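Severity: low
Component: inverse-folding endpoint
Summary: output formatting inconsistent between runs
Steps to reproduce: submit the following structure tokens with default settings.
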């Protein structure tokens, strides 16, 4: 990673970026029904199998990748300071099996968008996918989205969220509308753009209304993922 400012190497900014990256690699977020863990190499084969599904490709506006490309993508999301991705685990299943791969049900991502001008607020583009059919309609998507947004608000000072949703993805539309996102435009590619500006008091009331349990703890990475 190289950080340049006014033509000179900025050591302080580089160190700051490295600390942010290291922090997200060592973070686990726990709630009532799900656990969010960093996206690691051992998760890639199952994620790759998920993304062979035409249904998921359409819902996420994604193109299929080779397994090698999927590993490269995982490394990018893990190591880049403007990308945050977590694998969603079924908490009860993980308690029973102690196996992350068997407990995987989806993923959640936030990409930090560059500020448009000096008056712009910190903004993140969020995506959520519950890939396992048996894990759907259990509230995992809502709880995961609340957890991710709460982390971004608390730790990254994000004050605005953007969600780009496929026009036919009615499940995601309903989810984000529940969280008071509003549709602002239809993109050139026929996707719907939703936005939410965060007001602290309103956000605290929202997570309280859903009874969100939120706990951060250290994530122990597997040796072959270090």
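Observed output (run 2 of 3):
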């Amino acid at each position: 990673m190289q950080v340049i400012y006014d033509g000179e190497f900025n050591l302080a900014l580089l160190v700051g970026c490295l600390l942010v990256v290291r922090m997200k690699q060592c973070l686990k977020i726990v709630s009532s029904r799900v656990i969010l863990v960093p996206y690691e190499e051992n998760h890639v084969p199952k994620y790759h199998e998920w993304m062979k599904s035409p249904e998921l490709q359409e819902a996420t506006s994604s193109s299929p990748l080779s397994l090698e490309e999927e590993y490269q993508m995982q490394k990018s999301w893990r190591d880049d300071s403007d990308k945050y991705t977590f694998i969603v685990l079924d908490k009860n299943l993980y308690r029973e099996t102690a196996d992350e791969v068997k407990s995987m049900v989806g993923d959640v991502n936030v990409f930090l968008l560059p500020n448009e001008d000096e008056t712009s607020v910190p903004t993140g583009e969020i995506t959520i996918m519950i890939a396992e059919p048996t894990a759907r309609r259990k509230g995992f998507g809502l709880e995961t989205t609340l957890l991710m947004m709460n982390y971004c608000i608390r730790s990254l000072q994000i004050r605005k969220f953007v969600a780009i949703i496929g026009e036919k993805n009615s499940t995601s539309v309903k989810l984000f509308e529940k969280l008071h996102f509003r549709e602002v435009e239809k993109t050139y590619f026929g996707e719907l753009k939703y936005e939410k500006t965060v007001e602290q008091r309103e956000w605290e009331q929202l997570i309280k209304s859903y009874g969100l349990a939120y706990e951060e703890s250290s994530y122990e990475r597997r040796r072959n993922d270090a």
